[in-house]
Amino acid sequence: MAHHQHDGHDHAGHTAGLQQTHGHMHGHSHAHGPADYGRAFAIGVALNLSFVLVEVVFGVIGHSLALLADAGHNLSDVLAMLMAWGATALARRPPSLRFTYGLGSSSILAALANAVFLLVVTGGIAWEAIQRLLQPTPVDSGIVIGVAAFGVLINTGTALLFIAGRKGDLNIRAAFLHMASDAVISLGVVIAGIVMLFTHWFWLDSTVSLLISAVIVIATWGLLRDSTQLALHGVPEGIETQAVRAYLAALPDVVAVHDLHIWAMSTTETALTAHLVMPNGYPGDALLSQVSDELQAHFRIDHPTLQVETGDPTHPCALAPDHRI
Asked: At residue 167, does pLDDT exceed 80?
């Protein structure tokens, strides 16, 4: 546990002053930083890049917009995985004098960029499908079925590489969502190919592309919302600010809590700062260490910084009003 005492901000006029406690320094091992998904990203990129080439070749041969659209979508996923992979690597770098929190927030930017990228690419696919729907062209259904079925296997296998981390890391969730949506697309293309094989309803090729685009937009909207919220320093999903405030206010000798802020340092780490008004002064390292443990255990807050004040009316805290930042 590291505690720091600062001069010049002593509300009680003694050296208790400003005390800080950092939840990752009190001797208990917390799961910090992103898990190492480097191997999963490498396998995913290699498999999907190879599949993109297969889809382009056979999409041209078979005159299938659905295959070409899926190839474009897969290519966007390759780029998205590379972006997420890079962000994950950056998030593991130690802090520096310039970036004192490290580069963990790059994972938030990557998740946001991936959501926007996926929506833009899906919009392009939908536009092309509408154009093709107005002028249906013959499609080699056999090629469509074979290539798309192979795609179901590739994309499902890649999605499974990220399934374990999709709930704890928004960046990994983005990679999982990309791969899972591709598996759905490929399955839809398989079904369309089978129907076209027996009915020659070639307009299904474009219709399926439109339906799948709608499914992707719906699934991606949550990712866009959550990543935007984190990028704007919003409280991460699953953490109730009032519950955290109530916990801090209920601590021994605490009579007020103000200047409470909770935000994401990355897609896996959450920080908190708060001022605790304690008329009896600094409570000691043991209590602050316990608070750090409990904030992590109950609220998944990994990096708390707590400032202790005595509430001396002659030296009021300028940040006490709730509207102050």
From this structure: no
Query: How many angstroms separate the CA atoms of 103 and 87, rounded?
Result: 8
List CB contacts of 114: < 8 A, sequence separation 6 or more.
80, 83, 84, 174, 175, 178, 223, 227
In percent, how much of the chain has pLDDT > 70? 86
Which residues, at least 6 apart from 48, have a Cβ–Cβ distance to it below 8 Å?
74, 77, 78, 81, 154, 155, 158, 179, 182
Query: How many whole angstroms separate alpha carbon 20 and alpha carbon 263?
Result: 17
C-alpha–C-alpha distance, residues 135 and 202, integer Å: 10
> How far is residue 306 from each of residues 14, 100, 187, 224, measured CA to CA in Å?
18, 18, 52, 32
CA distance 184 to 176: 12
Burial group, residue 3, by CB count within 10 angstroms (0-12, 13-18, 19+): middle
Strands 270-277, 256-264: pairing kind: antiparallel
pLDDT at 244 over 90: yes
Amino acid at 61: I
Contact 70, 54 (CB under 8 A): no
Check: pTM over 0.85? Answer yes or no.
no
Q: What is the pLDDT of residues 184-200, one digit of tens each?
A: 878 888 888 898 888 88
pLDDT band at 286 (very low <50, low <70, confident <90, very high): very high
| Amino acid identity for residue 286 in this structure | A
Highest mean pLDDT among 4-8, 82-86, 187-191, 206-210: 187-191
Task: Give a three-class secondary structure readout of 151-184.
Answer: HHHHHHHHHHHHHHHCCCCHHHHHHHHHHHHHHH
